[in-house]
Amino acid sequence: PQSELQHALQIAERIRGGMDRRLFQADSGHSVRVTISIGLAMLPANTPSGAHHEMSARLVAAADKALYRAKHNGRNRVERYSAEQASPSIGQSCGA
After folding, report:
1. pLDDT per position in the chain (96 positions), as tens?
2. How far apart (Å, rounded) are the C-alpha atoms in residues 8 and 79?
C-alpha cells in the first residue's frame, strides 16, 4: 500500500528472486526448485477513496492479465499491467 510503481516492482522482484533461490523438499525426498511469475497492477493515485471498492475487481483482472503475460514471456518473471496499452507492458518487466 502507498507504494510507487518502481518500489512495487522491486518488492515483486525480490519475492520472485527469493523463491527462485530456494529449494523445497518433496515428499519423495527430492529437492525441488519452484519459480513464480508475478502480475502487478497499481490503483491510480487519483482514484477517489469511495471508488476503491469498485476498482478492486478491475485491479485483480489487470494483475491477472499481467500474470498471463509473464507466463507467456517465459515464466519466472515480473510483469506490470499498463493501462496505456490496455495489456501488460512488454519491456517494462524486471523478470529474468
Report:
1. 677 889 999 999 999 999 999 999 999 999 999 999 999 988 777 777 777 677 888 888 999 999 999 999 988 999 999 766 444 333 333 443
2. 11
pTM of the model: 0.67
**Lookup: cell for 25:** 523438499
Identify the three-state secondary structure at position 31.
Answer: strand
Phi and psi at residue 37, in whole multiples of 5°?
-115, 145
Q: Is 2 exposed, middle or buried (0-12, 13-18, 19+ CB in 10 A)?
A: exposed
Determine the residue type at 47. T
Q: How far is CA 21 from CA 51, 72, 80, in A?
A: 39, 22, 22
Pick from 27, 10, 16: which is nearest to 70 by CA?
Answer: 16
